[in-house]
Amino acid sequence: MSVPVAYQGNTSAAIADWLNKGDNAWQLTASTLVGLMSFPGLVVLYGGMAKKKWAVNSAFMAVYAFAAVWICWVTWAYGMSFGEELIPIWGKARPALDQGFLLGRAALPATAHYHADGTLETAMIEPFFPMATVVYFQCVFAAITLILVAGSLLGRMSFTAWMIFVPLWLTFSYTVGAFSVWGGGFLFHWGVIDYCGGYVIHIPAGVAGFTAAYWIGPRARKDRERFPPNSILFTLTGAGLLWMGWAGFNGGGPYAANVDASIAVVNTNIATAASLLVWTCLDIIFFKKPSVVGAVQGMITGLVCITPGAGVVQGWAALVMGVLAGSIPWYTMMVLHKRSKLLQRVDDTLGVIHTHGVAGLLGGVLTGLFAEPTLCALFLPVADSRGAFYGGAAGGAQLGKQIAGALFVIGWNVVVTSIICLAIRLVVPLRMSEEKLEIGDDAVHGEEAYALWGDGELYDDTKHGGSAVAPV
Prior knowledge:
The protein has helices at 21-49, 55-82, 99-103, 131-150, 159-181, 186-190, 198-216, 221-225, 232-251, 259-287, 292-306, 315-339, 341-345, 352-370, 373-378, 392-425, 434-439, 441-445, 461-464; strands at residues 85-87, 90-91, 108-114, 120-125. By secondary structure, it is mainly α. It has a single domain (39-425), classed as Ammonium transporter fold (Orthogonal Bundle), CATH 1.10.3430.10. A two-stranded antiparallel sheet has the order 1-2. α7 runs parallel beside α16 and α11 runs parallel beside α14 (352-370). It starts with 20 loop residues before the first helix and ends in an 8-residue tail after the last helix.
């Protein structure tokens, strides 16, 4: 494909007549903020939350996923998520590498219109920036989803199995959700509201992580009984990157530096602060101590819960969503989990099913309640929508759509993640060997997070590099 005419002969700077520098700068900034949430955000958070002997492995699972998703995304997965429709849940695979494609003006599904004869036509929006910006923005969303899945599997999954799992799950699970909800698929046309990732990112991550954890099996008994964070300060550092980075996560949803982006960012902070405070208060009331890790969990559930409706709910609704985000997932994690045989059987290392699965589902349902008609009109994909709180048959129907859409996403991820895990198990073990489970990072990578070489570790300087000077 040739370079678009708008760029030919423009040797000073690649500025097309349709380019809005402000929108493009904001979208690139938002994309980078989301990328920083993954690397270093979740890399540091996982490295700090994990037991000392698993700090390196936990962080490295996140690093690998971030890199692997990038290559898969530009090679085939972007087209499957946002390309030409193949079937109502999937787009056609195609590379996003050609400069003619990347430099061309972005075009994305906007609203669905039905003709008098019943045929469907999808109106398109054309943001004032190139397709390369959209590829970047959506890639970091795909990457963080895989990294969230990893949070359920820390401390026992074979790294080789994880290397295979990432491209397979991206291809057969993530792309389906992305196309169905955002790329012009059947949930998009049906009118399911997912402002910036509750149905595409958080519910799939929680459900897929829980499902994969079931097939992989639990951590070693000693690790499951005692898995203290090796660094609370690292955990807080990663959490801070998540919270601040979420301004790009939800603020980038409208694909423009507009008023809806501003509303989304403010609502995100309202809900997150409320959720953190409620979670902390519940810890004090029931456990007599304010937990830093608990506060981080509450922060995450607030961020996740507001995401499906960040730009389509009012500030008071964001506050209500934050209070519920800090209490309902708290109950499922701290009370229900201990009483449920199923939840006890499955070893979800960081409780991703609660912080992302439950919180994402809660946010989707509450969006069906609180989506405000005027704000929906600002967000083109759901321009004619309203939540049940605002009355009318349309409001009740919206709530039903939100629930049905969540059920599809949950069912697809349970089935597809199970198939992927069973297929990988035919090739390589899903779990590490018992020896590696006993030793941890040193046995898996030959490295430790806080190591003084010469203390008897398995680190081999000839294989892993390091100082060329022999120790005295």
